[in-house]
Amino acid sequence: MPTGRAAAPDAAVARWIRRVLAAAPPRAKSLVVTVWGDAIAPHGGSIWLSGLIRLLAPLGLNERLVRTSVYRLAREGWLTARPHGRHSVYSLTPQGRHRFEDAYRRIYAPPQSAWTGRWDVVLAPQARLRAIARRELGKELSWAGFGSLAPGIFIRPEHRGEPETAAAILQDLGVAGQVARVDAIDRGQAARPLASWVPTCWNLEAVALEYSAFIGRFAAVTRRFQSLKVFDPEQCFVVRTLLIHEFRRVILHDPQLPQELLPSRWPASKAYELCRDFYRLTHAHAERYLARTLAPELGALPPAASYFHRRFGGL
To answer: What is the average pLDDT across 288-301?
Structure first.
């Protein structure tokens, strides 16, 4: 078991980080989103731009890339700036907070429990929506796990205990009055069951390949950390960030269907367990790096919100 003492950077982990960043450098704006949701949001959601620049330097982002990414996120409504002299503090907007909550609920929560057998169906007749509105609706529903059964017909297995994601999407896009939502359930053998349309509605083969690539990329470095007695906080933060960044990308392509609708040997659980094990092993050390790096502006890092400690079933 780890002793909690800090160590010098591990040479094997350092080589892995250099290799991954060289082979597939993350897109700057997307990486800023990952760091904000994974590390900054639990500590109040605000950060000085100078602190963010230092935080992201070990991940290969220079000052220009960080500034450009933050400005773009502010223009897109994710962030808002509060000037302090010649410097700025950036915080999540209410819209940005809503987006983060929805995305990160899917990342850190365990796979959903048993399915009720019911379906959530959105009916968007083409005659009622303009082309731009249809495209935007299809994109947002896809991110929420809906599949396209036919033009203007979107379905998703009912997710018990989740917020009304579809209702929020329709409201945000201003199309609630032009679109119908119904609950559906298969009625015996009288017609082809909706479950049989799963391969048509979702490209599960592509998602499975993404999960397998993710596991292949991070399994070895996770085993390396599990063999260490002490940890370098910066390496813990960097690898955790890359892990969550890649897991976020894969899981947001995953409709997260119930087990009953998935192919055999579906790899999502294995990927989730890999993230859970690494996060539990290193989170205290990664938090130490976060506090140390942001100390010049913040002093003491605000304590993590209670939901942070509930990630991956409890840290």
So the answer is: 89
